[in-house]
Design a protein that fits this description.
Two copies of one chain form a homodimer.
Chain A lengths: L2 E3 L2 E2 L3 E3 L2 H10 L7 E5 L5 E10 L2 E10 L8 E6 L5 H14 L3 E6 L11 H13 L7 E2 L3 E2 H6 L19 H14 L2 E6 L9 E2 H5 L7 E6 L7 H9 L2 E5 L7 H15 L3
Helix pairs in contact in A: 2-3, 2-8
Amino acid sequence: MEFFYAHEISAREVFLDTDESAHCVRVLRHRTGDEITVVDGLGTMMRCRVTDDSPKGVSAEILESFPGWGGHPYSLTMAVCPTKNNDRFEWFVEKATEVGVDRIVPVIGERSERRVFKPERSRKIALSAMKQSLKACLPLVEEPIPVKDFILSPAVEGDSPYLRPFARIGSRSDREQEGLVASTAVNEIKLICYCFEGETERRSIEDVLREVPEGSDITVMIGPEGDFSPQEAQLAVENGFIPVHLGPSRLRTETAAVTAATAVYLHFMK
Amino acid sequence: MEFFYAHEISAREVFLDTDESAHCVRVLRHRTGDEITVVDGLGTMMRCRVTDDSPKGVSAEILESFPGWGGHPYSLTMAVCPTKNNDRFEWFVEKATEVGVDRIVPVIGERSERRVFKPERSRKIALSAMKQSLKACLPLVEEPIPVKDFILSPAVEGDSPYLRPFARIGSRSDREQEGLVASTAVNEIKLICYCFEGETERRSIEDVLREVPEGSDITVMIGPEGDFSPQEAQLAVENGFIPVHLGPSRLRTETAAVTAATAVYLHFMK
Protein backbone atom coordinates (compact mmCIF):
# COMPACT_ATOMS: atom_id res chain seq x y z
CA MET A 1 0.00 0.00 0.00
CA GLU A 2 1.40 3.38 -1.06
CA PHE A 3 0.14 6.86 -0.13
CA PHE A 4 0.49 9.90 -2.38
CA TYR A 5 0.28 13.45 -1.08
CA ALA A 6 -1.91 15.91 -2.98
CA HIS A 7 -0.96 19.56 -2.73
CA GLU A 8 -4.07 20.63 -4.56
CA ILE A 9 -7.56 19.25 -4.12
CA SER A 10 -10.84 20.25 -5.72
CA ALA A 11 -14.29 18.95 -4.85
CA ARG A 12 -13.89 15.94 -7.13
CA GLU A 13 -10.22 15.82 -8.18
CA VAL A 14 -6.73 15.67 -6.68
CA PHE A 15 -3.52 16.94 -8.30
CA LEU A 16 -0.02 15.64 -7.49
CA ASP A 17 3.05 17.88 -7.73
CA THR A 18 6.00 17.01 -10.00
CA ASP A 19 7.85 14.88 -7.39
CA GLU A 20 4.79 12.86 -6.46
CA SER A 21 3.73 12.59 -10.10
CA ALA A 22 7.14 11.31 -11.21
CA HIS A 23 7.15 8.77 -8.36
CA CYS A 24 3.60 7.70 -9.26
CA VAL A 25 4.14 7.35 -13.02
CA ARG A 26 7.88 6.71 -13.54
CA VAL A 27 8.67 4.61 -10.44
CA LEU A 28 5.37 2.87 -9.67
CA ARG A 29 4.23 2.95 -13.33
CA HIS A 30 0.64 3.95 -12.61
CA ARG A 31 -1.43 4.69 -15.71
CA THR A 32 -4.75 6.43 -16.41
CA GLY A 33 -7.51 4.28 -14.94
CA ASP A 34 -5.39 2.90 -12.07
CA GLU A 35 -6.65 3.28 -8.51
CA ILE A 36 -4.28 5.13 -6.16
CA THR A 37 -4.52 6.24 -2.52
CA VAL A 38 -4.07 9.94 -1.88
CA VAL A 39 -3.94 11.93 1.38
CA ASP A 40 -4.48 15.67 1.81
CA GLY A 41 -2.18 16.10 4.83
CA LEU A 42 -5.20 17.39 6.77
CA GLY A 43 -6.50 14.04 7.94
CA THR A 44 -8.40 12.77 4.91
CA MET A 45 -7.45 9.69 2.89
CA MET A 46 -8.99 9.32 -0.58
CA ARG A 47 -9.40 6.39 -2.94
CA CYS A 48 -8.83 7.91 -6.39
CA ARG A 49 -8.70 6.88 -10.07
CA VAL A 50 -5.94 8.38 -12.23
CA THR A 51 -7.38 10.57 -15.01
CA ASP A 52 -4.07 12.01 -16.28
CA ASP A 53 -0.83 10.02 -15.93
CA SER A 54 1.56 12.80 -16.96
CA PRO A 55 4.81 12.41 -14.96
CA LYS A 56 4.83 16.23 -14.64
CA GLY A 57 1.37 16.45 -13.08
CA VAL A 58 -0.90 13.52 -12.23
CA SER A 59 -4.57 14.23 -11.70
CA ALA A 60 -7.05 11.73 -10.29
CA GLU A 61 -10.79 11.56 -9.66
CA ILE A 62 -11.87 11.12 -6.03
CA LEU A 63 -13.88 7.90 -5.65
CA GLU A 64 -14.22 7.80 -1.86
CA SER A 65 -13.03 9.92 1.09
CA PHE A 66 -12.06 8.75 4.59
CA PRO A 67 -11.78 11.76 6.93
CA GLY A 68 -9.88 11.46 10.23
CA TRP A 69 -7.73 8.65 8.80
CA GLY A 70 -4.83 7.16 10.81
CA GLY A 71 -5.44 9.53 13.67
CA HIS A 72 -5.01 9.55 17.42
CA PRO A 73 -7.45 10.67 20.14
CA TYR A 74 -5.34 13.66 21.22
CA SER A 75 -3.45 16.59 19.78
CA LEU A 76 0.29 16.68 20.49
CA THR A 77 2.63 19.65 20.16
CA MET A 78 6.30 18.84 20.65
CA ALA A 79 8.45 21.92 21.35
CA VAL A 80 12.02 20.64 21.09
CA CYS A 81 15.39 22.40 21.08
CA PRO A 82 17.25 21.52 17.84
CA THR A 83 20.27 19.32 18.51
CA LYS A 84 23.87 20.22 17.64
CA ASN A 85 23.75 17.43 15.08
CA ASN A 86 20.88 18.07 12.65
CA ASP A 87 20.45 14.35 11.85
CA ARG A 88 19.39 13.71 15.43
CA PHE A 89 16.60 16.30 15.30
CA GLU A 90 15.47 15.05 11.90
CA TRP A 91 15.44 11.53 13.29
CA PHE A 92 13.11 12.78 16.05
CA VAL A 93 10.85 14.37 13.41
CA GLU A 94 10.62 11.06 11.53
CA LYS A 95 9.94 8.94 14.62
CA ALA A 96 7.49 11.37 16.21
CA THR A 97 5.57 11.49 12.91
CA GLU A 98 5.42 7.68 12.75
CA VAL A 99 4.20 7.42 16.35
CA GLY A 100 1.92 10.45 16.08
CA VAL A 101 2.50 14.18 16.50
CA ASP A 102 0.52 17.18 15.22
CA ARG A 103 2.84 20.13 15.60
CA ILE A 104 6.62 20.40 16.00
CA VAL A 105 8.06 23.70 17.25
CA PRO A 106 11.86 24.06 17.20
CA VAL A 107 12.61 26.17 20.27
CA ILE A 108 15.93 27.87 20.99
CA GLY A 109 16.94 27.82 24.66
CA GLU A 110 19.42 30.05 26.48
CA ARG A 111 21.80 27.08 26.57
CA SER A 112 21.14 25.86 23.01
CA GLU A 113 24.37 25.33 21.09
CA ARG A 114 22.40 25.36 17.84
CA ARG A 115 20.77 28.78 17.55
CA VAL A 116 19.81 28.59 13.86
CA PHE A 117 17.40 26.04 12.42
CA LYS A 118 15.98 25.72 8.91
CA PRO A 119 12.74 23.68 8.91
CA GLU A 120 12.70 22.75 5.18
CA ARG A 121 14.44 19.37 5.51
CA SER A 122 12.40 18.44 8.58
CA ARG A 123 9.20 19.24 6.66
CA LYS A 124 10.24 16.88 3.84
CA ILE A 125 11.04 14.18 6.40
CA ALA A 126 7.66 14.65 8.12
CA LEU A 127 5.91 14.35 4.74
CA SER A 128 7.61 11.09 3.76
CA ALA A 129 7.19 9.67 7.30
CA MET A 130 3.47 10.53 7.15
CA LYS A 131 3.08 8.64 3.87
CA GLN A 132 5.31 5.75 4.98
CA SER A 133 3.33 5.27 8.20
CA LEU A 134 0.02 5.51 6.30
CA LYS A 135 -1.21 8.62 8.08
CA ALA A 136 -3.29 11.32 6.42
CA CYS A 137 -2.37 14.30 8.61
CA LEU A 138 0.93 16.10 8.04
CA PRO A 139 2.58 17.39 11.23
CA LEU A 140 3.24 21.12 11.12
CA VAL A 141 6.97 21.93 11.47
CA GLU A 142 7.10 25.58 12.49
CA GLU A 143 9.82 28.22 12.28
CA PRO A 144 12.14 28.25 15.32
CA ILE A 145 11.35 30.61 18.21
CA PRO A 146 13.05 31.29 21.57
CA VAL A 147 11.96 29.06 24.47
CA LYS A 148 10.67 32.07 26.43
CA ASP A 149 8.56 33.28 23.49
CA PHE A 150 7.06 29.81 23.13
CA ILE A 151 6.25 29.66 26.84
CA LEU A 152 4.51 33.05 26.63
CA SER A 153 2.77 32.40 23.30
CA PRO A 154 -1.01 32.00 23.56
CA ALA A 155 -2.21 28.40 23.33
CA VAL A 156 -2.75 27.33 19.72
CA GLU A 157 -5.51 24.79 19.29
CA GLY A 158 -3.76 21.62 18.17
CA ASP A 159 -3.70 21.49 14.38
CA SER A 160 -5.23 18.03 14.55
CA PRO A 161 -8.41 16.76 12.92
CA TYR A 162 -8.36 13.97 15.48
CA LEU A 163 -9.15 15.97 18.60
CA ARG A 164 -12.61 14.50 18.62
CA PRO A 165 -12.59 10.85 17.57
CA PHE A 166 -14.71 10.19 14.50
CA ALA A 167 -14.96 13.89 13.69
CA ARG A 168 -15.85 14.11 10.01
CA ILE A 169 -13.61 16.63 8.32
CA GLY A 170 -14.26 18.08 4.88
CA SER A 171 -12.49 21.18 3.62
CA ARG A 172 -9.72 23.01 5.44
CA SER A 173 -12.12 25.78 6.51
CA ASP A 174 -14.54 23.24 8.00
CA ARG A 175 -11.62 21.78 9.86
CA GLU A 176 -10.50 25.14 11.16
CA GLN A 177 -13.97 25.78 12.47
CA GLU A 178 -13.92 22.37 14.14
CA GLY A 179 -10.51 23.25 15.51
CA LEU A 180 -11.86 26.42 17.03
CA VAL A 181 -14.79 24.58 18.54
CA ALA A 182 -12.47 21.87 19.83
CA SER A 183 -9.96 24.31 21.29
CA THR A 184 -12.54 25.69 23.67
CA ALA A 185 -13.81 22.21 24.48
CA VAL A 186 -10.63 20.20 24.98
CA ASN A 187 -8.49 19.79 28.05
CA GLU A 188 -5.11 21.51 27.65
CA ILE A 189 -2.01 20.20 29.37
CA LYS A 190 1.56 21.49 29.09
CA LEU A 191 4.62 19.57 30.25
CA ILE A 192 8.26 20.60 30.52
CA CYS A 193 10.83 17.79 30.65
CA TYR A 194 13.46 19.10 32.97
CA CYS A 195 16.62 17.30 34.11
CA PHE A 196 17.94 20.14 36.22
CA GLU A 197 20.15 18.72 39.01
CA GLY A 198 18.63 18.93 42.47
CA GLU A 199 15.18 19.54 41.01
CA THR A 200 12.90 17.69 43.42
CA GLU A 201 9.37 18.72 42.50
CA ARG A 202 9.10 16.81 39.24
CA ARG A 203 6.64 13.96 38.76
CA SER A 204 7.23 11.27 36.14
CA ILE A 205 5.52 11.78 32.77
CA GLU A 206 3.70 8.48 33.33
CA ASP A 207 2.28 9.71 36.63
CA VAL A 208 1.06 12.97 35.06
CA LEU A 209 -0.39 11.32 31.94
CA ARG A 210 -2.59 9.06 34.09
CA GLU A 211 -4.83 12.11 34.64
CA VAL A 212 -5.01 13.13 30.97
CA PRO A 213 -8.28 12.20 29.19
CA GLU A 214 -8.85 11.46 25.51
CA GLY A 215 -9.30 14.54 23.35
CA SER A 216 -6.68 16.48 25.30
CA ASP A 217 -4.44 19.06 23.67
CA ILE A 218 -0.98 18.13 24.95
CA THR A 219 2.22 20.18 24.72
CA VAL A 220 5.61 18.75 25.69
CA MET A 221 8.73 20.93 25.81
CA ILE A 222 12.20 19.34 25.64
CA GLY A 223 15.38 21.29 26.36
CA PRO A 224 18.78 21.40 24.67
CA GLU A 225 21.83 19.23 25.51
CA GLY A 226 22.60 21.64 28.37
CA ASP A 227 19.00 21.56 29.67
CA PHE A 228 16.78 24.61 30.22
CA SER A 229 18.15 27.49 32.25
CA PRO A 230 16.61 27.83 35.74
CA GLN A 231 14.97 31.05 34.49
CA GLU A 232 13.36 29.25 31.54
CA ALA A 233 12.16 26.44 33.80
CA GLN A 234 10.72 28.90 36.31
CA LEU A 235 8.97 30.94 33.59
CA ALA A 236 7.46 27.72 32.19
CA VAL A 237 6.14 26.65 35.60
CA GLU A 238 4.74 30.15 36.21
CA ASN A 239 2.90 29.80 32.90
CA GLY A 240 1.24 26.48 33.63
CA PHE A 241 3.85 23.97 32.46
CA ILE A 242 4.07 20.90 34.72
CA PRO A 243 7.70 19.87 35.33
CA VAL A 244 8.13 16.17 34.57
CA HIS A 245 10.98 13.69 34.32
CA LEU A 246 11.34 10.77 31.92
CA GLY A 247 12.59 8.23 34.44
CA PRO A 248 16.03 7.17 35.66
CA SER A 249 17.77 6.97 32.27
CA ARG A 250 19.79 9.97 31.09
CA LEU A 251 18.46 10.45 27.56
CA ARG A 252 19.80 12.52 24.68
CA THR A 253 17.59 15.45 23.61
CA GLU A 254 16.14 13.61 20.61
CA THR A 255 15.68 10.39 22.60
CA ALA A 256 13.86 12.31 25.33
CA ALA A 257 11.60 13.89 22.70
CA VAL A 258 10.71 10.56 21.09
CA THR A 259 10.27 8.91 24.52
CA ALA A 260 7.82 11.66 25.55
CA ALA A 261 5.84 11.40 22.27
CA THR A 262 5.80 7.60 22.71
CA ALA A 263 4.59 7.93 26.33
CA VAL A 264 1.61 9.97 25.06
CA TYR A 265 0.96 7.46 22.25
CA LEU A 266 1.08 4.48 24.66
CA HIS A 267 -1.04 6.22 27.29
CA PHE A 268 -3.98 6.29 24.88
CA MET A 269 -3.45 2.72 23.67
CA LYS A 270 -6.35 0.48 24.68
CA MET B 1 30.22 13.74 34.15
CA GLU B 2 32.11 11.25 31.97
CA PHE B 3 32.19 7.46 32.24
CA PHE B 4 35.14 5.31 31.17
CA TYR B 5 34.83 1.62 30.38
CA ALA B 6 37.36 -0.76 31.93
CA HIS B 7 38.06 -3.95 30.01
CA GLU B 8 40.20 -5.30 32.81
CA ILE B 9 39.52 -5.05 36.51
CA SER B 10 41.44 -6.45 39.48
CA ALA B 11 40.36 -6.38 43.10
CA ARG B 12 41.78 -2.89 43.61
CA GLU B 13 42.64 -1.51 40.15
CA VAL B 14 41.03 -0.86 36.77
CA PHE B 15 42.82 -0.75 33.41
CA LEU B 16 41.59 1.20 30.36
CA ASP B 17 42.31 0.00 26.82
CA THR B 18 44.18 2.20 24.31
CA ASP B 19 41.04 3.98 22.97
CA GLU B 20 39.71 4.79 26.43
CA SER B 21 43.18 5.72 27.67
CA ALA B 22 43.81 8.10 24.77
CA HIS B 23 40.40 9.71 25.32
CA CYS B 24 41.09 9.98 29.06
CA VAL B 25 44.59 11.43 28.78
CA ARG B 26 44.81 13.18 25.37
CA VAL B 27 41.24 14.51 25.04
CA LEU B 28 40.16 15.04 28.65
CA ARG B 29 43.74 15.62 29.87
CA HIS B 30 43.43 13.54 33.04
CA ARG B 31 46.67 13.09 34.96
CA THR B 32 47.92 10.79 37.72
CA GLY B 33 46.02 11.65 40.90
CA ASP B 34 42.83 12.75 39.10
CA GLU B 35 39.53 11.15 40.07
CA ILE B 36 37.68 9.44 37.19
CA THR B 37 34.48 7.42 36.98
CA VAL B 38 34.81 3.92 35.54
CA VAL B 39 32.19 1.26 34.74
CA ASP B 40 32.76 -2.46 34.26
CA GLY B 41 29.88 -3.04 31.81
CA LEU B 42 28.44 -5.54 34.28
CA GLY B 43 26.48 -3.08 36.38
CA THR B 44 29.14 -1.63 38.67
CA MET B 45 30.25 2.01 38.66
CA MET B 46 33.53 2.84 40.38
CA ARG B 47 35.06 6.06 41.65
CA CYS B 48 38.77 5.71 40.83
CA ARG B 49 42.04 7.66 41.13
CA VAL B 50 44.43 7.59 38.17
CA THR B 51 47.73 5.88 39.10
CA ASP B 52 49.24 5.76 35.58
CA ASP B 53 48.26 8.39 32.98
CA SER B 54 49.92 6.72 29.98
CA PRO B 55 47.78 7.41 26.87
CA LYS B 56 48.47 3.80 25.84
CA GLY B 57 47.12 2.27 29.04
CA VAL B 58 45.64 4.14 31.97
CA SER B 59 45.42 2.36 35.29
CA ALA B 60 43.49 3.65 38.28
CA GLU B 61 42.94 2.65 41.88
CA ILE B 62 39.35 1.83 42.90
CA LEU B 63 38.21 4.19 45.68
CA GLU B 64 34.54 3.20 45.87
CA SER B 65 32.21 0.77 44.04
CA PHE B 66 28.50 1.18 43.28
CA PRO B 67 27.01 -2.13 42.09
CA GLY B 68 23.70 -2.19 40.23
CA TRP B 69 24.27 1.36 38.95
CA GLY B 70 21.86 2.97 36.47
CA GLY B 71 19.72 -0.14 36.31
CA HIS B 72 16.10 -1.02 35.75
CA PRO B 73 13.85 -3.43 37.69
CA TYR B 74 13.54 -5.92 34.82
CA SER B 75 15.64 -7.77 32.28
CA LEU B 76 14.86 -7.04 28.63
CA THR B 77 15.90 -9.09 25.62
CA MET B 78 15.10 -7.48 22.25
CA ALA B 79 15.18 -9.96 19.35
CA VAL B 80 14.98 -7.76 16.26
CA CYS B 81 15.36 -8.49 12.56
CA PRO B 82 18.18 -6.33 11.13
CA THR B 83 16.85 -3.67 8.77
CA LYS B 84 17.81 -3.33 5.08
CA ASN B 85 19.54 -0.09 6.06
CA ASN B 86 22.15 -0.80 8.77
CA ASP B 87 21.95 2.74 10.17
CA ARG B 88 18.36 2.11 11.22
CA PHE B 89 19.27 -0.99 13.22
CA GLU B 90 22.26 0.76 14.79
CA TRP B 91 19.97 3.66 15.69
CA PHE B 92 17.72 1.15 17.48
CA VAL B 93 20.76 -0.22 19.36
CA GLU B 94 21.69 3.28 20.53
CA LYS B 95 18.18 4.26 21.61
CA ALA B 96 17.37 0.94 23.27
CA THR B 97 20.64 1.19 25.23
CA GLU B 98 19.78 4.72 26.37
CA VAL B 99 16.29 3.69 27.48
CA GLY B 100 17.42 0.34 28.89
CA VAL B 101 17.98 -3.08 27.33
CA ASP B 102 20.08 -6.04 28.50
CA ARG B 103 20.41 -8.28 25.47
CA ILE B 104 19.99 -7.62 21.73
CA VAL B 105 19.61 -10.63 19.44
CA PRO B 106 19.65 -9.94 15.68
CA VAL B 107 17.21 -12.51 14.27
CA ILE B 108 16.88 -13.40 10.59
CA GLY B 109 13.28 -14.05 9.48
CA GLU B 110 12.03 -15.94 6.43
CA ARG B 111 11.09 -12.58 4.92
CA SER B 112 14.21 -10.69 6.02
CA GLU B 113 15.84 -8.84 3.13
CA ARG B 114 19.03 -8.55 5.16
CA ARG B 115 20.26 -12.07 5.85
CA VAL B 116 23.81 -11.17 6.97
CA PHE B 117 24.59 -9.06 10.01
CA LYS B 118 27.94 -8.22 11.62
CA PRO B 119 27.51 -7.18 15.26
CA GLU B 120 30.85 -5.35 15.71
CA ARG B 121 29.59 -1.84 14.90
CA SER B 122 26.44 -2.31 16.99
CA ARG B 123 28.60 -3.40 19.94
CA LYS B 124 30.66 -0.20 19.67
CA ILE B 125 27.44 1.85 19.51
CA ALA B 126 26.03 0.07 22.57
CA LEU B 127 29.25 0.77 24.49
CA SER B 128 29.27 4.50 23.75
CA ALA B 129 25.51 4.78 24.38
CA MET B 130 26.00 3.04 27.74
CA LYS B 131 28.67 5.54 28.75
CA GLN B 132 26.77 8.52 27.32
CA SER B 133 23.60 7.59 29.22
CA LEU B 134 25.61 6.99 32.44
CA LYS B 135 24.75 3.32 32.71
CA ALA B 136 27.12 0.68 34.07
CA CYS B 137 25.77 -2.40 32.31
CA LEU B 138 26.70 -3.05 28.68
CA PRO B 139 23.91 -4.65 26.62
CA LEU B 140 24.98 -7.90 25.01
CA VAL B 141 24.74 -7.74 21.18
CA GLU B 142 24.73 -11.37 20.05
CA GLU B 143 25.55 -13.05 16.75
CA PRO B 144 22.54 -13.27 14.40
CA ILE B 145 20.41 -16.42 14.41
CA PRO B 146 17.30 -17.48 12.45
CA VAL B 147 13.94 -16.47 13.97
CA LYS B 148 12.88 -20.12 14.33
CA ASP B 149 16.10 -21.04 16.18
CA PHE B 150 15.59 -18.12 18.55
CA ILE B 151 11.99 -19.18 19.21
CA LEU B 152 13.14 -22.72 20.01
CA SER B 153 16.24 -21.72 22.00
CA PRO B 154 16.00 -22.40 25.74
CA ALA B 155 15.32 -19.33 27.86
CA VAL B 156 18.54 -17.53 28.79
CA GLU B 157 18.37 -15.84 32.14
CA GLY B 158 18.51 -12.13 31.38
CA ASP B 159 22.14 -11.00 31.49
CA SER B 160 21.12 -8.22 33.84
CA PRO B 161 22.46 -7.47 37.30
CA TYR B 162 19.24 -5.54 37.89
CA LEU B 163 16.80 -8.44 37.98
CA ARG B 164 16.47 -8.04 41.70
CA PRO B 165 16.45 -4.37 42.73
CA PHE B 166 19.30 -3.48 45.07
CA ALA B 167 21.09 -6.75 44.40
CA ARG B 168 24.73 -6.21 45.36
CA ILE B 169 26.95 -7.56 42.63
CA GLY B 170 30.65 -8.17 43.03
CA SER B 171 32.63 -10.22 40.56
CA ARG B 172 31.33 -11.61 37.31
CA SER B 173 31.09 -15.13 38.78
CA ASP B 174 29.04 -13.84 41.72
CA ARG B 175 26.79 -12.18 39.20
CA GLU B 176 26.40 -15.34 37.19
CA GLN B 177 25.40 -17.21 40.31
CA GLU B 178 22.90 -14.47 41.06
CA GLY B 179 21.74 -14.75 37.48
CA LEU B 180 21.17 -18.46 37.89
CA VAL B 181 19.30 -17.93 41.11
CA ALA B 182 17.29 -15.13 39.54
CA SER B 183 16.45 -17.11 36.41
CA THR B 184 14.58 -19.68 38.45
CA ALA B 185 12.94 -16.99 40.56
CA VAL B 186 11.81 -14.40 38.02
CA ASN B 187 8.67 -14.25 35.96
CA GLU B 188 9.41 -14.84 32.27
CA ILE B 189 7.32 -13.25 29.55
CA LYS B 190 7.83 -13.42 25.78
CA LEU B 191 6.09 -11.12 23.28
CA ILE B 192 5.99 -11.19 19.50
CA CYS B 193 5.04 -7.93 17.77
CA TYR B 194 3.08 -9.07 14.80
CA CYS B 195 1.39 -6.86 12.17
CA PHE B 196 0.05 -9.70 10.07
CA GLU B 197 -3.07 -8.51 8.22
CA GLY B 198 -6.32 -10.00 9.50
CA GLU B 199 -4.65 -11.15 12.69
CA THR B 200 -7.36 -10.65 15.29
CA GLU B 201 -6.12 -12.30 18.45
CA ARG B 202 -3.46 -9.75 19.36
CA ARG B 203 -3.67 -7.62 22.49
CA SER B 204 -1.87 -4.28 22.73
CA ILE B 205 1.57 -4.33 24.37
CA GLU B 206 0.21 -1.89 26.99
CA ASP B 207 -2.60 -4.28 27.89
CA VAL B 208 -0.19 -7.21 28.28
CA LEU B 209 2.43 -5.25 30.24
CA ARG B 210 -0.16 -4.29 32.87
CA GLU B 211 0.16 -7.86 34.19
CA VAL B 212 3.99 -7.89 34.23
CA PRO B 213 5.55 -7.43 37.71
CA GLU B 214 8.93 -5.94 38.61
CA GLY B 215 11.84 -8.35 38.32
CA SER B 216 10.40 -9.97 35.19
CA ASP B 217 12.58 -11.34 32.43
CA ILE B 218 10.98 -9.88 29.28
CA THR B 219 11.66 -10.89 25.68
CA VAL B 220 10.24 -8.90 22.75
CA MET B 221 10.61 -10.14 19.16
CA ILE B 222 10.25 -7.69 16.24
CA GLY B 223 9.97 -8.84 12.63
CA PRO B 224 11.51 -7.61 9.39
CA GLU B 225 10.05 -5.02 7.00
CA GLY B 226 7.89 -7.79 5.49
CA ASP B 227 6.75 -9.00 8.95
CA PHE B 228 7.08 -12.57 10.26
CA SER B 229 5.84 -15.41 8.10
CA PRO B 230 2.62 -17.05 9.34
CA GLN B 231 4.71 -20.15 10.13
CA GLU B 232 7.14 -18.14 12.27
CA ALA B 233 4.25 -16.43 14.07
CA GLN B 234 2.53 -19.77 14.70
CA LEU B 235 5.73 -21.39 15.98
CA ALA B 236 6.27 -18.44 18.33
CA VAL B 237 2.76 -18.70 19.74
CA GLU B 238 3.13 -22.48 20.15
CA ASN B 239 6.28 -21.76 22.16
CA GLY B 240 4.76 -19.32 24.59
CA PHE B 241 5.14 -16.00 22.79
CA ILE B 242 2.15 -13.69 23.29
CA PRO B 243 1.17 -11.92 20.03
CA VAL B 244 0.90 -8.18 20.64
CA HIS B 245 0.42 -5.06 18.54
CA LEU B 246 1.94 -1.62 19.08
CA GLY B 247 -1.21 0.39 18.42
CA PRO B 248 -2.77 1.95 15.34
CA SER B 249 0.40 3.50 13.85
CA ARG B 250 2.26 1.58 11.17
CA LEU B 251 5.83 1.70 12.47
CA ARG B 252 9.12 0.90 10.75
CA THR B 253 10.99 -2.12 12.16
CA GLU B 254 13.44 0.00 14.17
CA THR B 255 10.69 2.33 15.38
CA ALA B 256 8.63 -0.65 16.51
CA ALA B 257 11.65 -2.02 18.37
CA VAL B 258 12.35 1.26 20.19
CA THR B 259 8.62 1.77 20.90
CA ALA B 260 8.44 -1.69 22.50
CA ALA B 261 11.58 -1.11 24.60
CA THR B 262 10.16 2.28 25.63
CA ALA B 263 6.80 0.70 26.55
CA VAL B 264 8.63 -1.65 28.95
CA TYR B 265 10.70 1.25 30.35
CA LEU B 266 7.59 3.42 30.90
CA HIS B 267 5.59 0.54 32.39
CA PHE B 268 8.03 0.33 35.31
CA MET B 269 8.23 4.10 35.78
CA LYS B 270 6.76 5.14 39.12
